[in-house]
Amino acid sequence: MPKVLIATEKPFAAEASAKIKAEFDAAKYDYKFLESYTDPSDFHKAVADVEALIIRSDKVTEEVLNAAKKLKIVVRAGAGYDNVDLKSATAHDVVVMNTPGQNSNAVAELAIGMMIYLARGKFNGKSGMEIAGKKLVLFGYGHIARLVARMAQGIGMAVYAYDPYISADIMTKDNVKPLTKVEDIFKTGDYVSLHIPSNSETKKSINWELLSLLPEGATLVNTARKEVIDEDGLLKAFADKKGFRYVSDVAPDNLDKINEEYADRIFCTPKKMGAQTAEANVNAGIAAARQIIGYLEKGDKTFKVN
Ligand code: 3PG
To answer: Mind listing the pLDDT tens digit for each residue in 3-27?
Structure first.
């Protein structure tokens, strides 16, 4: 009977945990949950005797992989897998998968929600601004960005996108105008929404050189990763561009410094909230459980990322 660990520092909604249990009960798998842990050594201990692992943003380091002597598969219940040491997983003969698309709607709704929240002055009772009629540029056109595009069009925004890995036809079919240069993203957008992964190419890539191109009063929307932002450039954008605004799912490290002078132009979630809905947890949790069963029973490697 294969054994699975569900290790979530940020636990799934109860409904999702119940559905994950039901998947493993039906497959006659053994499983255990390690939730809200604060000491990584608890994770290292718990992973020692399992063949499969489900995580969220939990870090799967070389140390975790060394401790996981029987591990065959890790499924990141979510999109981004920058929290998994892929090289080490491959060296340990461990398959890594994500569950693309399963939590996208939750993240897209957060992006739109944060845009409106800041445009309306965080609902402070004073006159704010509408997002209808404004230009939104999506940097990256994957699952989340496509949903943001649809929602934004419903509100009345003009939507543009840049993604060198996606055909312009896909954007055009969605009534989204394709852009061909990174600079054009920042020159065009009243709102620029980031939908890029965090990797060696993208880390700190959103810098002053790009932010300086934004039109007056533009808002940068980050539901991707805080690591893609160059924080010196972000601070300079607040200082040099009087109407610049920033909304982000997870604060930059220099939030206190920014808040000292520009608190009315920034909003950040206190904890990463993008995928924090019952629906997203259920979708990603069930997909993760099924992918583990599919791999261990039939060798199905769909969604393998290493
Ligand atoms: C993702 O990459 O899927 C999101 O960032 C969600 O992360 P979380 O599962 O830690 O909320």
So the answer is: 999 999 999 999 999 999 999 999 9
Beta bridge partners of 73: 52, 95
Token readout for 251 is: 């604060």
**pLDDT for the residue numbered 175:** 98
Question: Does 3.40.50.720 match the CATH number of domain 3-102+276-298?
Answer: yes
Q: Specify the pairing of strand 158-162 against strand 266-268.
A: unpaired
Domain 104-268 in this protein, CATH class:
alpha beta
CA 92–ligand 1 middle distance (angstroms): 24
Does 100 sit in the ligand 1 pocket, CB within 6 Å?
Answer: no
Ligand 1 centre to CA of 272 (Å) is: 8
Q: Whose CA is nearest to atom 2 of ligand 1?
A: 80
Map out the domains of the chain as residue ranges: 3-102+276-298, 104-268
Ligand 1 site, residue 79, Cβ cutoff 6 A: yes
Are residues 34 and 56 in contact, defined by beta-carbon separation less than 8 angstroms? no
Q: Could you read off the pLDDT of 222-279 as tens digits, one per residue? A: 999 999 999 999 999 999 999 999 999 999 999 999 999 999 999 999 999 999 999 9
Nearest CA to ligand 1 atom 3: 78
